[in-house]
Design goal:
Strand 3, helix 5 and strand 4 form a beta-alpha-beta unit. The protein contains six helices and five strands; from the N terminus they run H-E-H-H-E-H-E-H-E-E-H. It is α/β, with parallel strands linked by helices. The structure holds 1,3,4-trihydroxy-5-OXO-cyclohexanecarboxylic acid. The site of 1,3,4-trihydroxy-5-OXO-cyclohexanecarboxylic acid has 10 residues, from loops.
Length: 154
């Protein structure tokens, strides 16, 4: 019965600014995989894990916050790549705190090997975990880590 109810669980996949351009955006840094391909792969992995992945991308900070509010009570957790808002948005961190949504942060690039302004994440302190530098595979790892962690908590 517990297993059956878990299978109804949804996981949010939230992508922030400029990630809609993956595939052509700075390919030497972010590769050539599109966001659509990443979302599709997460859907397959999510199904394997017994969950449904619901994805949303927005370029606006407020849109991302509104999505977290809407997901409250409807998704069990969130995989988030907040793009540049990672480094600037106290409001996004507050939204995670306000909704109590557990999350794993992911970045395609290794933010710690890049410019100093990318070394700080305002989201990391509240995250279950952070995956960065592994390209699209990082999304899959973040999803697996999130689901396994939430499952262990139940
Ligand atoms: C990113 C890293 C951020 O610093 C950058 O602003 C992005 C993408 C990544 O996935 O590597 O937009 O989050």
């Amino acid at each position: 019965m517990a297993q059956r109810s878990w299978q109804l669980v949804k996981i949010g996949l939230l992508n922030g600014p400029n990630l809609n351009l993956l595939g052509t955006r700075e390919p030497t840094i972010y590769g050539t995989t599109t966001l659509e391909e990443i979302v599709s792969r997460c859907g397959v992995v999510g199904a394997e894990l017994g969950t449904e992945v619901v994805a949303m991308q927005a370029n606006g900070e407020g849109q991302l916050i509104d999505q977290l509010h809407a997901w409250r009570g409807h998704v069990a957790g969130v995989v988030v790549n907040a793009g540049a808002y990672t480094h600037t948005s106290l409001a996004l961190r507050d939204a995670f705190a306000a909704t109590s949504l557990p999350y794993v942060e992911v970045h395609l690039s290794n933010i710690y090997a890049r410019e100093p302004e990318r070394h700080r994440s305002l989201l990391a302190g509240g995250a279950i975990g952070v995956v960065c530098g592994l390209g699209p595979l990082g999304y899959e790892m973040a999803l697996r880590g999130l689901v396994e962690t939430l499952r262990a908590r139940r």
